[in-house]
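Query form — protein Methionine ABC transporter ATP-binding protein

QUESTION: What is the three-dimensional structure of this chain?
INPUT:
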Amino acid sequence: MSPAPVMVRFRDTVKTFPGTHGEIRAVDGVSLDVHEGEVFGVIGYSGAGKSTLVRLINALEPVTSGQVVVDGVEVAGRPESELRRVRAGIGMIFQQFNLLSSRTVAGNVGYPLAVARWSRARRRARVAELLEFVGLSDKARQFPSQLSGGQKQRVGIARALATNPRLLLADEATSALDPETTQDVLDLLRRVNGELGVTVVVITHEMDVVKHLCDRVAVMEDGKVVELGEVYDVFSRPRHRATRRFVGSALRDRPSPGALERLRHRHPGRVVTVAVQEDGASSTDLTRALREHAVDGTIIYGGITEIAERPFGSLTLELEGDHGDVQAFIADLSRTTSVLDLGTAAAPIADPDATDLR
Ligand SMILES: Nc1ncnc2c1ncn2[C@@H]1O[C@H](COP(=O)(O)OP(=O)(O)OP(=O)(O)O)[C@@H](O)[C@H]1O
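ANSWER: The structure tokens for Methionine ABC transporter ATP-binding protein are given below.
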């Protein structure tokens, strides 16, 4: 199957800002393609460059060097008049919703249509259709202050979709919402993608958002893309430290240094953390290896979740048995899955990725 056409292409894209201690490379040589029809996530900690990357897509910031191509149009160096046409094909939603407080829900949704000089009759019909789609038909005459956060974001989504954009940019769109409302908004964004065929780029610092919504994900750190791929692949086998921290903070599957120290007090044996993947150490593999090597394993920590019905996570075990048997068990299991040796209470080995997560 040939990949879908490209909706957004970055090639060696750099964006710098002047800083007090020299230039800041907010986007530092990014190359990636967002395909038509996919939901693409960009995840990173604060300052990683995510918002800058988005502002390059809708040409709110000029690129310093490299390419940014949106729906076939090279954005870099375009005159403002032509950029307006590119922006017209892009919808955007924000963490703080950015609704006009003096306008009703219908007025907010219809605003971009008024700007685009749609007739009153067409506007009314389109607004009604959009409110129906986001489930707010009964709120048309209310004002934003009368709505919950989740309802405000639904209005934001309806407004962003008003002029039928082919691309929707969602910058931390659920960061101000509680978990349940977040889920509703993520479901709605899935429908925007699935039913309307809109390509969605999601910027977030929350792995759960990526997990529930995205097809592929890019992990950013210090302006660079450090990992890129299918969501399951990236999160079930995180290679970069930043990715491992996102998995750790969402899943809380690995003991923090403090928790590990407490565990060692109670469990003086050899401690290992074993990755759980659909094709790696399923619990059957683990039990088989324990049996074959005459090693006793007690689960002392762990967490497993799933993405698209595919399980992943890790289990931390205390192993007891003859030293040679334990060594052989670790070597055997390491052939099919990732095993992190954390040593024993007497000879501890630190987890290089463990952080006391905020
Ligand atoms: N207009 C600007 N002028 C100077 N520096 C900027 C500007 N915009 C962003 N930066 C810097 O570029 C880097 C990346 O910022 P950016 O906002 O893109 O990151 P982010 O991942 O979106 O983080 P956050 O989630 O905190 O917004 C940061 O060091 C930031 O201080």
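ADDITIONAL NOTE: The chain has a mean pLDDT of 92.
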